[in-house]
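Notes from hallway chat w/ T.B., transcribed later so I don't forget. T.B. wanted the structure written out for a chain they're using in a teaching module, and asked if we could keep both sequence and structure tokens in one place. Agreed to drop them here.
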Amino acid sequence: MKHFLPLTSLAAAIALATSTHAAAGTERVINVSLPLGPDSQQGIGVLKFGEELERLSEGRLTIEPHYDNALGAEREVVEGMGFGIIDAGIASTGPMGGFVDEFMLFDLPYVFENHKHAYAFLDSEHGEELARLAEEGMNVKFLAWMENGFRHNTNSVRPIEKPSDLEGINHRTQESRVQVDTWEALGANATPMAWTEVYTALQQGVMDSQENPLATIYDVNFYEVQDYLNITQHVYSPAPLMMGLDLFNSFSEEDQAIIIEAAQIALPVQREASQELEQRYLGQLEELGMTVTHPDLAPFREAVKPVLEEWAPTVGAELVDAAVNYKY
């Protein structure tokens, strides 16, 4: 079911798209939406993409990044690209399961063991098939499987050493039914909430807990409103770089190839930066006062097995099996 843009975001996006598409000649500025800032793992990847795009096109194609959800929340941006009112963007896959069931794979807990496992799967024919489904179901073109990284729990109640420690904690999830089931299986009170509302909800005590990659936890200053960082590594979160499919198809074949090449050059740069930031921010978050725990993950994996069993038929049992058992 489609969820339409709020009028304010829609009006701003239409005005932006109209002014951009009105440009004459072969030069083109591509507006790119990002949930985070320029120094984040997302910003590093998008800026590298822009640098390579300008180089390969000899200055004809450039980007204008729009940071910190300036063009709307992630679901709105994905819809906006599909409708042709937002050029391009990087977004987590969390909201995409509402459009294409197979994307709920990335909401399922403990599918990927480590970065190499995730990269090998995404860079295989399975990633290509998911990108094709995105074209059909969301009208967007995947340019590169960039990443947010592995997600970890933070909260303001207690350190999490075992699943029962989550009992009674009000936990924010992305707008994903799978994530709600996962956190309820772990004992938390799970509530889906738009990304733009999360910090305030934690600050005001409406929510006790959230989960995100370490770089994101640092980038949005969650350490100011959360006391405990728990290395749960429960979900691997891609952040694909996308473009509206109609816009992509409007480019010449030569420029389409340039766009893809620029994104693929930026991909390993972004992934490497993401891993480096994970390690850097783990230390910095502890220095900033967060209590860090490294729980034994086996009980967590066991607790969420019913979630995988329940959702495998919806996501696609063969796809889930391929991801969990992918050889890398």
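Follow-up for T.B.: Residues 1-15, 17-25 have pLDDT under 50 and may be disordered. Might be a good example for the class.
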